[in-house]
Amino acid sequence: MKSIQGFGLGLRTEHYAAFEAEPQKRVDWLEIISENYMVPGGAPLWHLERIRRDFPMVMHGVSLNIGGTDPLRMDYLRDLKTLVQRVQPGWVSDHLCWTGTQGVNLHDLLPLPYTQETLLHVCDRIQRVQDFLGRRLVIENPSTYVAFASDQMPEWEFVGAMLQRADCELLLDVNNVYVSSVNHGFDPRHYIDAIAPSRVRQIHLAGHETHEGYLIDTHDQPVCEAVWQLYAYTLQHCASVPTMIERDDHIPALHELLDELDHARLVHDTALAASSTMAAEECAA
Ligand SMILES: [Fe+2]
């Protein structure tokens, strides 16, 4: 299949009709939530198959529980693999987190202590999932609100070590880096600087809310100016990376998200043009 590049959106049920009605040429690709389609039939798969004919897709999961201590669920992985075979996605992603224990799915993306023990545990599970799926996994950095007394390294060091040890790739959520940087008081550019550009497969952009000095990763409003600036900084570090906007609540009409996606294109082109100007000036100096 064609390699995925450019600017995408998360496919949401509110926009099925718009995608089925006309080609929507301002969207280069779509990201689907894997679990919404891991069923043998029904309306979601019917819509998916129609829209898939027009758009390359990537798959994004929310229940792999890669950091959990329950055994990996082979029934879940078999269903995931069936969907991979059906969709033929550009890549398959999930989150650096735990989502449940003792067979209970808590339906939340919960933070992990960044210790050597966690690193070995997560990498072992990523490698087993990669072996089962026969492809690299793409893991997303979380937004977090607490840190652990047992932490042995900052998140960016943990992520860097995970990418190398598990030989997986990164879904770099720029909003998550920003949210965590405010909540924990670190420089988000320091996080970006620590990431190996060759491992960054995809970028997420999203909106958040402010509550009593903390940022909450709500995905319910437009991307804020500080995150656009961090996105530009990220592109100057990583060069061009397929980028999408996540919206999960207060979902607007598709044309509003398409306008926001056009703004991402503008920020992207401006950042890369500035990078090449700086490189040319350095050569000339
Ligand atoms: Fe994200």
Structure description:
The longest helix is centred in the last third of the chain and has 31 residues, at 254-284. With 285 residues, this protein is an alpha/beta fold. The protein is globular, with a radius of gyration of 19 Å. It is built from 9 helices and 12 strands. The model has no long low-confidence stretch (mean pLDDT 96). It has helices at residues 16-21, 43-52, 74-87, 116-133, 155-166, 174-184, 188-193, 225-238, 254-284, and strands at 7-10, 29-33, 57-60, 92-95, 98-101, 104-110, 137-140, 169-173, 200-205, 209-211, 214-216, 243-245. Helix 4 (116-133) packs parallel to helix 5 (155-166) and helix 8 packs across helix 9. The strands form 3 sheets. It has an 8-stranded parallel β-barrel with strand order 1-2-3-4-7-8-9-12, surrounded by 4 helices. The protein has a two-stranded antiparallel ribbon with strand order 5-6. The structure holds fe (ii) ion. Fe (ii) ion (FE2) is lined by residues 140, 173, 176, 204, 206, 246.
Record the SSE blueprint.
Blueprint: E1 7-10, H1 16-21, E2 29-33, H2 43-52, E3 57-60, H3 74-87, E4 92-95, E5 98-101, E6 104-110, H4 116-133, E7 137-140, H5 155-166, E8 169-173, H6 174-184, H7 188-193, E9 200-205, E10 209-211, E11 214-216, H8 225-238, E12 243-245, H9 254-284
Parallel strand pairs: 1-2, 1-12, 2-3, 3-4, 4-7, 7-8, 8-9, 9-12
Antiparallel strand pairs: 5-6, 10-11
The chain binds fe (ii) ion.
